[in-house]
Design goal:
By secondary structure, this protein is mainly β. Helices cover about 15% and strands about 40% of the residues. The protein has a 13-stranded antiparallel beta sheet.
Amino acid sequence: MALIELDAVLGSLVVEQTGETTWTAPNVEMDYRRIFGGQLLGQAIALGVATTEGKSVKSLSCLFPREGSMDEPLEFVVEETQTGRAFAARRITAAQNGKTFFVAQLSMHADEDGHDHQDPAPEVGGPEDAALQEPTMIPWTTRIVAGVDIADHGVGPADYALWTRVDDRRLPDDLAINQALLAYATDLNVIGTALRPIEGVSVADTQISLHTAVTSHSIWFHRPFRIDEWCLITQHSPTISGARAFGHGTVFDAGGALVASFAQESMIRPIG
């Protein structure tokens, strides 16, 4: 059963200007005390598009210096760092009770033509070959390559891949909405991927024997795509060290086009 609803995620992307540089947006309601980082990634994309004209997000780099509370109002401050004909930059912050809990730097780019090259998509089979996963934090269809269970306590390689698609509706022809939903999805499984090589420990131990939190997340968009068509998310974690994990990933569309790349650092700290 889904922990949240797709309509709630889409609703959180509707940003409203409240002052010259201040904006607000609703939280995705869930049975959890802190704001999910994927929500903030999506909202940053919505804010970047709302404060520029004729450009889309090409990259987004975020820091999460502390938790954001679901019980406090959500207010963003958007600063115009630079605006040019082809590129623009925006800095976004959010604070509660005078303490900053979210910082983002966005780079925007107008569409241009140029040379084209990419690595090939991995050969992992199609969505029909992957195991259907019951929706939880991602409230649309996901299929896990090779049926890997990142909650399992056995040892496995620090790799994880899934096919994902919004299949209960056709989304608007709006690149920003598709980017925001993809960014949301990339925030969810990197910690679990990093823990796979550690015997007897998994992401299922979060808040039981592990304290985990994403500390930074970056995503780069390479080509237009739709997330109401199949996308393949692959990820790998090369290291955990000093209570910090690092992972990175790629996103391909069903035709094999590389549409996005992402990277994440997180805190993984034993409790007690």
